[in-house]
């Protein structure tokens, strides 16, 4: 099927695979590398990305819900799928049916699995080492072991925790160093050498890379897999590359006289006679409304300012300075995130300009925007 609207996101799967390989090569002995493909792989399409990662022999991936895991199984993803959030008996039944790997973070989940597992089941256990979101504490270990003792089908394959400020990992006495000390204490209480211990997110990985430190634990990168820098001002660009091209087209052009206004509320008034291009993407597509009058798009290889408020289906840009006749802009490509000629608008820049974090920019790309992988789109 061809596109009926000129708005799409193109995802560079080769670059995702290369990002994965580069992260793997940071430490060839790395015990565990589990890309996070939750939230539809940060909005980019979980199935296509999981398939690309499997081609790189990636054997573990992380999702947030049982439904996300089931979707990957429905599309024949055979890697270990770690489920970081699940609740209730029914979720346990689905976990067992679909051979998912639950990450257990409380006694209710443990009890439900102990009751449900009639066959061999690998689980990972999550500990809270300071973030105070999910996870057991070290003092829970005797009761966890008691629980596990009641069902020999359950096998602890991994122990993990989550960092709340991973970027400071290389600083002495930092919050992350305190979390690591707590994690080490927990690790010593589990004697099984088969267990994998995983801890690092993208911010921690990027910081270890920049400081040329080795990786003592396994990693669960999200941002870095998708080519996004957790700390843009420090740049890990030589390590990983961007994967997203989000673009649309100029579909209509207006010559507006000085003093005329553009878009709802008339928040922008032309200071001179202007050429305004109408681009077929709005906040329902992921062009955040907070970019109104502050963000840019790329048209004809130039950064052009957004004028007026972003609408649900359209955004208006100022083409006056490009130096072309108004009618010649019709059909011009308009890049929202990505590269055009020498110019680039990165996810990081959009996040900064729109007052959001990169995760929100990515997961905010609208459901109705087709995701294209090479020439195919899903
Ligand atoms: C438990 C867990 N591990 C790893 C990640 C990956 O984080 P990042 O995208 O910062 O690498 C997340 C993301 O929110 C997470 O919740």
SSE diagram, text form:
Elements: E1 8-11, H1 13-25, H2 38-42, H3 46-55, E2 60-63, H4 66-74, E3 80-83, H5 88-97, E4 101-104, H6 107-116, E5 121-127, H7 141-149, E6 154-161, H8 175-189, E7 196-200, H9 202-210, E8 218-219, E9 244-256, E10 261-262, E11 268-269, E12 274-279, E13 296-299, E14 302-305, E15 315-318, E16 333-340, E17 343-345, H10 347-354, H11 358-363, E18 371-373, E19 376-377
Parallel strand pairs: 1-18, 2-3, 3-4, 4-5, 5-6, 6-7, 7-8
Antiparallel strand pairs: 1-9, 9-12, 9-16, 10-11, 12-15, 13-14, 13-16, 16-17, 18-19
Helix pairs in contact: 1-3, 5-6
The structure holds pyridoxal-5'-phosphate.
What does this protein structure show overall?
The chain is of the alpha/beta class and 378 residues long. It has 2 domains: 13-219, Alpha-Beta Barrel (TIM Barrel), CATH 3.20.20; 244-345, Lyase, Ornithine Decarboxylase, Chain A, domain 1 (Beta Barrel). It has helices spanning 13-25, 38-42, 46-55, 66-74, 88-97, 107-116, 141-149, 175-189, 202-210, 347-354, 358-363, and strands at 8-11, 60-63, 80-83, 101-104, 121-127, 154-161, 196-200, 218-219, 244-256, 261-262, 268-269, 274-279, 296-299, 302-305, 315-318, 333-340, 343-345, 371-373, 376-377. Strands 1, 9, 12, 13, 14, 15, 16, 17, 18 and 19 form a 10-stranded mixed sheet that branches. α1 crosses α3 (46-55) and α5 (88-97) crosses α6. The chain is elongated, with a radius of gyration of 24 Å. The mean pLDDT is 95. Pyridoxal-5'-phosphate is lined by residues 36, 84, 162, 201-203, 220-223, 230.
């Amino acid at each position: 099927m061809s596109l009926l609207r000129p708005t799409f996101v193109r995802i560079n799967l080769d670059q995702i695979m290369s990002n994965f390989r580069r992260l793997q090569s940071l430490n060839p002995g790395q015990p565990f590398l589990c890309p996070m493909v939750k939230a539809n792989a940060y909005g980019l399409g979980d199935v296509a990305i999981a398939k690309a990662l499997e081609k790189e022999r990636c054997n573990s991936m992380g999702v947030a819900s049982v439904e996300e895991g089931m979707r990957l199984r429905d599309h024949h993803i055979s890697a270990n799928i770690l489920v970081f959030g699940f609740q209730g008996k029914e979720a346990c039944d689905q976990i067992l049916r679909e051979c998912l790997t639950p990450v257990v973070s409380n006694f209710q989940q443990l009890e439900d699995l102990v009751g449900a597992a009639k066959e061999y089941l690998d689980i990972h256990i999550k500990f809270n080492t300071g973030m105070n979101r999910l996870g057991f504490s070290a003092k829970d270990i005797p009761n966890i072991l008691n629980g596990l003792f009641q069902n020999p089908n359950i096998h602890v394959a991994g122990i993990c925790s989550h960092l709340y400020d991973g970027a400071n990992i290389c600083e002495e006495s930092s919050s992350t160093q305190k979390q690591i000390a707590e994690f080490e204490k927990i690790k010593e209480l589990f004697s099984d050498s088969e267990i994998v211990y995983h801890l690092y997110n993208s911010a921690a990985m990027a910081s270890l890379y920049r400081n040329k430190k080795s990786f003592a634990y396994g990693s669960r990168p999200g941002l870095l897999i998708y080519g996004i820098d957790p700390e843009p001002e420090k740049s890990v660009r030589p390590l990983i590359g961007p994967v997203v091209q989000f673009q649309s087209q100029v579909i209509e052009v207006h010559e507006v006289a000085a003093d005329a206004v553009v878009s709802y509320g008339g928040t922008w008034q032309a200071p001179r006679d202007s050429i305004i291009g109408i681009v077929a993407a709005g906040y329902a597509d992921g062009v955040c409304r907070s970019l109104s009058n502050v963000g840019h798009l790329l048209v004809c290889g130039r950064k052009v300012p957004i004028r007026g408020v972003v609408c649900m289906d359209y955004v208006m840009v100022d083409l006056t300075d490009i130096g072309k006749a108004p009618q010649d802009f019709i059909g011009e490509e308009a890049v929202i995130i990505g590269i055009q000629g020498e110019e680039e608008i990165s996810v990081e820049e959009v996040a900064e300009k729109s007052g959001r974090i990169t995760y929100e920019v990515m997961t905010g790309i609208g459901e109705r925007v087709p995701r294209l992988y090479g020439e195919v789109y899903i």
